[in-house]
Amino acid sequence: MKVISNNPLFKENDFSDFNFIDGNYLDVLKSARDYIHKGFSLLNHPLYGSVKPNETIYRTILLKEEKALDENSLMLIEDAITFFNSFESNSKPKNWPERILNDFQYIDKSLIMESFSHISNCN
Fold this sequence. Notes:
- This protein is α+β, with helices and mostly antiparallel strands.
- Helix content is 46%, strand content 14%.
- The protein contains 3 helices and 4 strands.
- The protein has helices spanning 25-37, 71-88, 98-122, and strands at residues 2-5, 17-20, 40-42, 60-65.
- Strands 2-1-4-3 form a 4-stranded mixed sheet, sandwiched between helices.
- The longest helix has 25 residues, at 98-122.
- The protein starts with a strand and ends with a helix.
């Protein structure tokens, strides 16, 4: 499993294949798209948790390597990028205080760990 994240809470982790993205939410989505083009598929929805792109700055994506292009994953990630861009164009950048950033990190990590646990139990 490949993990792509811009969440600093994941920097120290036990994932064997982890890519920390020093960038924003969109950078994570684009990195995931690049991996999908290389033959990976999504293990979690790129817009999980009902947290809109303008409501957080952290995103984590779980991928698995496949033998061919997963068109469904490509469609989902492209739709997520379009969705992100529609929110980004209608909102002004926010200067979030540290305590709010910490909350965003915690929410992202909690949601993705629940997904990770579910995926692990299914395999």
